[in-house]
Amino acid sequence: MQRRRGFTLIELLVVIAIIAILAAILFPVFAQARESARKSACLSNVKQIGSAVQLYLQDYDETLALNLYPVDARLTVFSFFDAHLPYLKNTGVLQCPSEPQSQDWSTFFSSCGLPIRPLTDFRYFSYNGNYCMFNGGVTNPLTDRRPARHLATIPRPSEQSVFSDGKLECNFNSPFNENGRRPMTQVKPPRHHDGVMVAYIDGHAKYQKARRNPAGVWVAAGGPWDNRDSLWGLVNDQGVYGGCP
């Protein structure tokens, strides 16, 4: 009777080594493919938000929403997020697939020590508005005193950001990544292959590449906001960042 021969220890080790090598090669590929899918979904979300801004402009005589509307004496506010929700399919559009629970709008103000209570139908958000577009209004004591901005005052609508993905800070700045101003060793890259998704006021959306500057902060790589750590502000007639007049 012929004896059956099993695997030797060397053969088993060779097989295990081959499997480990294949896993090391394929896992990063799978992770990259997964992130590419999330990137596409994020771009779709941002495009829908940009379209919501367009629809709002059509309904309100080409005037952009204010960032916060006081509702009562207890400082309950209706925000520009709430103003655009009727034009979105669902509140999930406000959540990036890569960081769906990036921030909690209901606790954002209290975490920043602000005595403001949001009146809202959503909780988590991953995208932030350009607060130079969504002003505070001349009678709003909670924020600035700039009046609502009209579309006619925007020199280059196709280059003007209104929403992008990033982390909202207590000063209402929104850098490319949550650790935008921390030491280089603590800085994390933006969500999508070292870049962010941006919605523009004319309704289109696209990917904005970022890079890390010598100080370790992630900044825009090219475009009107080149070398700036957020897309906050107005693009002027020359097609570059022009502050927030």
Report on the architecture of this protein:
- It is a single chain.
- The chain is α+β, with helices and mostly antiparallel strands.
- It has one domain.
- It has three helices and ten strands.
- The protein has helices spanning 9-59, 80-84, 105-111; strands at 68-70, 76-79, 103-104, 117-118, 124-125, 127-129, 161-165, 195-200, 205-212, 218-220.
- It has a five-stranded antiparallel β-sheet, with helices on one face. A three-stranded mixed β-sheet has the order 1-2-4. A two-stranded antiparallel ribbon has the order 3-5.
- A hairpin with a 5-residue loop joins β1 (68-70) and β2.
- The longest helix is centred in the first third of the chain and has 51 residues, at 9-59.
- It is elongated and about 80 Å long.
- The mean pLDDT is 82.
Profile the largest sheet: 5 strands, antiparallel
Order of helices and strands: HEEHEHEEEEEEE
Instruction: State the secondary-structure class.
Output: alpha+beta
Integer tally of domains: 1
The 3D shape can be described as elongated
Question: Which value, in Å, is the CA radius of gyration?
Answer: 23 Å
> Into which percentage range does the β-strand content fall?
15-25%
Q: Within the largest sheet, what's the order of strands?
A: 6-7-8-9-10
N-to-C CA distance? 94 Å
Mean pLDDT: 82
* Uncertain spans: none
Number of strands: 10
The helix count comes to 3
Helix content: 25-40%
